[in-house]
Amino acid sequence: MGAKKKIILTILLLINIATMFLSWFGGARKIQEVRGTIVLLHPITLIAIGLFLIGLWYPFNKKVSKWICVGSITGIIAVKIYFFFFWHYMTVTGTVSIKESINLTYPEFYLGLGISTLILAISLFMKDNNQKRVNKK
After folding, report:
1. Do residues 39 and 123 touch, judged by C-beta distance below 8 A?
2. pTM for this one?
3. Domain ranges in the chain?
């Protein structure tokens, strides 16, 4: 991975982490809200962030580095989706319902999920500038 790509992914990861300090879920703003820090403080998320940074900045083989990054950001997305479906189960509704999940989720959650998905897409599909190009004649 090129240095430019690493810097872009690191900045996006920091923005992603910053969105976790916003209110993500709740029934009423400023009264009954849950911040995204419940996801940030989850052990899987913490391990995934560490693995992402190690995979990104440690000089592994390009393929190994790519798949460590992809796997770790997938783990973060999975934890976000898990909390999307189940955060209200124990505290508010007592049921698992996609309708309740959508109704009780603030736009900040979708922003964080979108940034995570963007990081995943960049990790998967952005090609390195250092790859050899075949000249077609």
Report:
1. no
2. 0.85
3. 3-121
